[in-house]
């Protein structure tokens, strides 16, 4: 699985999401590409009020605050599709 994580610097929710993703690597196999929303205007417009946003295999699955259980469910759903 390939994950895109839209985030911004200094974002506590983004840091929390990164910790959850690091922990999930024990159970799931995936690659992560982090994108700073300030690097492209279209990312900023789309995600400025919603970061972090986790896109799994091209589908937005999670945003803002989420739990390890929600992350597991999103990864399981992506793996099934």
Description:
By secondary structure, the protein is of the alpha+beta class. It has a single domain (2-80), classed as Glutaredoxin (3-Layer(aba) Sandwich), CATH 3.40.30.10. Helix content is 41%, strand content 26%. The chain contains three helices and four strands; from the N terminus they run βαβαββα. Strands 2-1-3-4 form a four-stranded mixed β-sheet, with helices on one face. α1 (12-24) links the parallel β1 and β2 (31-36). The longest helix has 13 residues, at 12-24. It is globular.
User: Outline, from the CA principal axes?
Assistant: globular
* Largest sheet data: 4 strands, mixed
Regions with little confidence, pLDDT below 50 for 5+ residues: none
For the secondary structure, the number of strands is 4
Topology:
Blueprint: E1 2-7, H1 12-24, E2 31-36, H2 41-47, E3 53-56, E4 59-63, H3 68-80
Parallel strand pairs: 1-2
Antiparallel strand pairs: 1-3, 3-4
């Amino acid at each position: 699985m390939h994950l895109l994580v839209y985030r911004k610097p200094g974002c506590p929710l983004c840091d929390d999401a990164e910790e959850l993703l690091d922990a999930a690597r024990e159970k799931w196999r995936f690659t992560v590409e982090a994108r700073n929303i300030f690097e492209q205007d279209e990312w900023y417009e789309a995600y400025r009020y919603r970061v972090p946003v986790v896109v799994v295999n091209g589908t937005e699955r999670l945003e803002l605050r989420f739990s390890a259980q929600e992350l597991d469910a999103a990864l399981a759903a992506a793996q099934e599709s």
